[in-house]
Each structure stands twice: as structure tokens, then as C-alpha cells.
Specification:
Order of helices and strands of chain B: EEEHEHEHEEEHEHEHEHEHH
Helix content of chain A: 10-25%
Order of helices and strands of chain A: EEEHEEEE
Oligomer: heterodimer
CATH architecture of chain A: Roll
Radius of gyration of chain A: 12 Å
Shape of chain B: globular
Strand order of the largest sheet of chain B: 5-4-3-12-11-10-9-6
Largest sheet of chain A: 5 strands, mixed
Distance between the termini of chain B: 46 Å
Number of strands of chain A: 7
CATH class of chain A: Alpha Beta
Structural class of chain B: alpha/beta
Shape of chain A: globular
Structural class of chain A: mainly beta
Number of domains of chain A: 1
Helix content of chain B: 25-40%
Number of helices of chain A: 1
CATH topology of chain A: Ubiquitin-like (UB roll)
């Protein structure tokens, strides 16, 4: 499947992928929050949230702000 | 009135300083840290942006901010729709472990003017979701009423566009909002360029100031942060003390009784 991660397309050789598995595979840090197709996914739901072909994932972390 | 013990109750917290400071645009992380400390501010604004894969758990910026041990106010900067702002606020609540949100929904790219319609829409949803919404807004009286009706206890009208440093463009509008909403906490957010702008806002009766560029882009940010610390105190004391009445005619301050004959006019 092909999914968009932070605006970049990435191909995965699998048909079943959870948010949890993706974060581990791609080595994202702990202080992050996730949105799937512009909808917030709670940390406690990572394991049970499946990612499908064509999905858009945004993974955000703290930065400077005004 | 005991002005020496002027605690500020904002939302569900108490502060000594009425200055809220941003964490962006400083020449270096060290200068950011020193500036925040020098400002005396107990509230710092932060944001969320995309993280690159493989970065692991390291986030030196966030570690530095946490070590300051002050209140975190996440923003929704960069959002252009209510939905974007709502999603970003929810992500911020999880990452920063706070239900405070500086709600920012931009409606125009030229002057980064907040979109009042999207702001109201997002505020309504977020308050129902348990957020304490601190809306960044234009200095519009009717918008202020709508946001207050939704349950906002803090409003943050702009002084002038973000990063412009133009000070208070419409003091009249700010004054009217102050007069109409004596029970709300009012903060001038955006546009402050120098300490005297902050004093002007505080003398209008505003409860606090949120700024970033005025310190971060100063020639000496740490020194400017300290200048703002004193400016807010001066402005607040001035407001509480109550200024003298303006007069058209001069009035001598030195006693006129006993004036020697050579100073007397016929």
C-alpha cells in the first residue's frame, strides 16, 4: 500500500498496518501526536487503528511558536 | 489596593507576571532560554509541526522548554480552517498535556488576520471538548461578544498584525472591548513592537500581553525581555493608580503663593 506520511508518499509491502506498527517501523519519537486523514488519533488507539492504502498521516512534535 | 501583591488569575492558574512570551525566532536556543527568564514570564507559547521519521525521541527544544518549568500555551498557528484548528488543538492537548489552547485560525495571508467565523466555529467545538480556549482575534466588539457567549473567559485581540511591530493600531477598539467586558481577562496578542506599546495596552486596562517578535528580533533580546518585564509592571501600576485628568491650560506645579515681585506679571 502507498500512504502519505507528513506529505511524502511511502510504499509498504503489506496490506495490514496499524498506526502503532508504522510509528515503530519508522522510528518516530515519543513526544508526538498523530492525525489520520486530518482526524486526531489518540495515543491509546494506535494499536487498534488500521491504515489503508491512500491514507494521509500527519505526525507532529513540539516546535517553537509565538 | 495592595499593588505589591498583584496576582493574576488567568483561567485556572495564578501568576505573578502578566507577560506571555513566544518561543520562536530567537537567534539561538540559549538566547531564547535567557530571554524567557529575563522577561519574568510564567507562560510560554509553543507549536506543533511535522516530525521527520527516524528522529527518535530527541527534541532538544522541547526538553529545554520543559526545564523552564512554566505554563505551556500551545497554539494552532498556521491553521486556515476550523477543522484544522480543532485537530491541531486535540493533538496539542495530548503532546503538551494541557487543555489550554491559543486558538488561531488565519483568514488572510497578507496580514495573517484571524478568520472570525472559523474562530467562533472552532471555539464552540473545543469548549464542548473541555478546552480552555484563548482565542487570537481581531479587535471586533461583536466577535468578542460571540466568543464570550460561547464561554471564553479570556480574549486576545490583536494590537496589529503578527510580527509587524506596529503597536496598537486601534486603541479605541481595544478600549471599547475593555469597557464592555470588565469581567473577562483581556490580552493584547500580536503587533507589540516596543515596551511603550505594552505600557499603552496595560494603561487601557488590559490584563496581559502576549508577544514574541518584539523580544526575539530585538538587537539584544535578553535586554529587551527585561525591558518588557518592567514595562508591564509600570503599565499595570499606572492603570491601577489612575492617571491625572488632562487639561487644556497649563497649571503651575510650584506654589504661586510667596512668589517674589520680580516674577509677578501684571
Amino acid at each position: 500500500m502507498i500512504i502519505s506520511i507528513n506529505g511524502e508518499l511511502k510504499k509498504f509491502e503489506t496490506d495490514t498496518l496499524t498506526v502503532q506498527k508504522l510509528l515503530e517501523t519508522m522510528q518516530f519519537g515519543k513526544g508526538i501526536a498523530v492525525a489520520l486523514n486530518e482526524t486526531f488519533i489518540m495515543r491509546t488507539k494506535y494499536n487498534e487503528t488500521n491504515i489503508n492504502d491512500g491514507d494521509r498521516l500527519d505526525i507532529l512534535s513540539p516546535v517553537q511558536g509565538g | 489596593m495592595n499593588n505589591r501583591n498583584d496576582k493574576w488569575i488567568l483561567e485556572d492558574k495564578e501568576f505573578d507576571s502578566r507577560l506571555m512570551i513566544g518561543s520562536a525566532l530567537y537567534p539561538s536556543p540559549k538566547i531564547m532560554e535567557e530571554s524567557i527568564k529575563a522577561s519574568g514570564s510564567q507562560i510560554v507559547t509553543v507549536a506543533l509541526r511535522r516530525q521527520s521519521a527516524g528522529e527518535g525521541g530527541d527534541n532538544p527544544f522541547w526538553e529545554l522548554i520543559k526545564e523552564l518549568n512554566i505554563t505551556i500555551l500551545p497554539n494552532t498557528a498556521g491553521c486556515h480552517t476550523a477543522k484544522e484548528a480543532i485537530t491541531t488543538a486535540m493533538m496539542a492537548r495530548e503532546v503538551f498535556e494541557t487543555n489550554w489552547i491559543k486558538l488561531e485560525v488565519i483568514g488572510n495571508q497578507y496580514n495573517l488576520q484571524p478568520d472570525p467565523f472559523a474562530l467562533v466555529e472552532a471555539t464552540e467545538v473545543l469548549i464542548k471538548e473541555g478546552f480552555r480556549v484563548l482565542p487570537y482575534m481581531t479587535d471586533d466588539l461583536v466577535l468578542a461578544q460571540r466568543l464570550a457567549d460561547l464561554g471564553c473567559s479570556t480574549l486576545m485581540p490583536w494590537g496589529s498584525p503578527i510580527g509587524s511591530g506596529r503597536g496598537l493600531m486601534n486603541p479605541y477598539n481595544l478600549k471599547v472591548i475593555r469597557k464592555q467586558f470588565p469581567e473577562l481577562q483581556l490580552i493584547v496578542d500580536a503587533g507589540i513592537g516596543k515596551p511603550s506599546d505594552a505600557i499603552e495596552a496595560m494603561e487601557l486596562g488590559f490584563d496581559g500581553i502576549l508577544l514574541n517578535s518584539a523580544v526575539a528580533l530585538a538587537q539584544e533580546p535578553v535586554m529587551m525581555a527585561e525591558a518588557f518585564k518592567y514595562a508591564l509592571r509600570a503599565g499595570r501600576l499606572s492603570y491601577q493608580a489612575g492617571r491625572m485628568q488632562e487639561r487644556d491650560m497649563a497649571s503651575p506645579s510650584t506654589p504661586t503663593v510667596g512668589t517674589p515681585f520680580w516674577h509677578q506679571f501684571n
